[in-house]
Amino acid sequence: MRRFDWQDPRVVRAAQLLLAAGFFGVWQIAAGRWIDPFYVSRPSDIAAALGHEIASAQFYDDLRVTGVEMLLGYGVGAAGGVVLGVALGRFAFVARLLDPFLVALNAVPRVALAPMLIVWLGIDMASKIFLAATLVFFITFFNSLSGVRAVERGLCDVARVQGASGWQIFAKVMLPGAASWILTGLKMSLPFALVGVILGEFMVSSHGLGYRLNLYATSYNTAGAMAMIMIMMAITMLLGAGFDKLEAHLLRWRPPPAWVSAAPRI
Amino acid sequence: MLLRIDGVAKNFVGRNGVVAALDPVSLTISPGEFVTIVGPSGCGKSTLLNLLAGLAAPSGGQVLADGRPIAGLDRRIGYVTQQDNLFPWRTLRDNVALPLELAGVGRAERAARAQEWLARVGLDGFADAYPHELSGGMRQRGNIVRTLIYEPEVILMDEPFGPLDAQTRLGLQALLLRIWQQTRPTVLFVTHDLVEAIALADRVLLMSARPGRILRDEAVAIGRPRDVFFIHDDAEFRRLHDGIWRDLAREVTV
Ligand SMILES: Nc1ncnc2c1ncn2[C@@H]1O[C@H](COP(=O)(O)OP(=O)(O)O)[C@@H](O)[C@H]1O
Ligand SMILES: [Mg+2]
Prior knowledge:
Chain A is mostly helical.
């Protein structure tokens, strides 16, 4: 007799689908009976609103604006964070010098900064890109710095004994040695790029998913607002999944994590 | 390369004050000589090798290579460290080929030479494995081979066969002697195993408990090539072993 295998990915997937179906099913039934759909809408209405969005040209315009802002904000913030984090890992004095200032900058509540950014950078894309970049930068920066500091000294020594130059140490020891930390920072900061952009769009804008969400919510179009939120979730999840693929490839040298059961299957 | 250690001391400043790791040590090692160092754990053997590798600076005295003080690293001096220090993100082949890669050797030649050296230590079937997929003994063989591959003039080895089982150990001792006889690098080999120390060496140095001093400096008058598997049958081996063992035992128990 075959035992039921809880580790089987197909079993896990089926259970996940069941859970999701249950959630939306309960929501659909509850809305209109026990809770007012005015506040939470209902899955069928949201699906209709989603269909409406996807069929409209305006949606793709919003998507493009938000997408570009997010991409640029993430790109600038992540590149800056990784480069500075890895570089400071190499220069202990500069790292110590800048440490309190970086901590202070990171302590600035970015939400509070948003109105000022509009004053400084205007109401166009720049303010949104900057907001996203500041959120992304510190997450990737601190992760990259920790990563470089966690690289084992013995590995550096081996490379130096074998004649590695400063640049080779950086490229062949520090960067790959810190890769798992850097990738964690890059992954963790991804949703924050969207948060920064949406926040900026809430403040002042005439395009973008955040603008549209704000418009729907303030005109009591709950289904439309929910549809927008779901689209944002989908964007974050899609990018996250892509990232997981990239990470699995780049870190293929790692032993499998302990929580994956190693018990033999008979 | 002629190595000279001239009145070298090394102190470490730690949380509990200053630790003297090496008492002034003086010593000359001729080019092509195979010297082994035995001594109790913590007596400063690794510290001495770190100084020769240029990874640390002495607190007193001078470490000289061909008459010039060693200031920093020198590619002519290779170092097989006590921990295997294989790069976890590199396959065994790429780990072994790293010194060639750093020197700008082309990819095809790197791969070919790595393959050849892996085959010599019985690892040719594992070139594409990552370190976590290998046993401790296999990793240590990889660690040794990646220093041999670029043929440094001086090879420092810090208990390289420590974590290996007895059979593998003997096999690798024989292999190391064969390779040494072919290219004749200077070898400074640290071990806690007196049998191994005598079996391999032209000269055995016995170090005292910390702070380390050289207690005895014994020439090993056993002919070469040697058969490490039957070295204990040799009369000269037994004479040396019994003599040094008495002093070593005293250092270990005190
Ligand atoms: N980086 C360090 N800081 C402080 N003490 C050290 C350091 N490295 C070694 N020591 C001390 O120096 C002594 C010699 O160490 P080591 O050379 O590693 O001994 P071994 O002969 O076992 O290789 C030990 O007592 C050790 O505690
Ligand atoms: Mg040691």
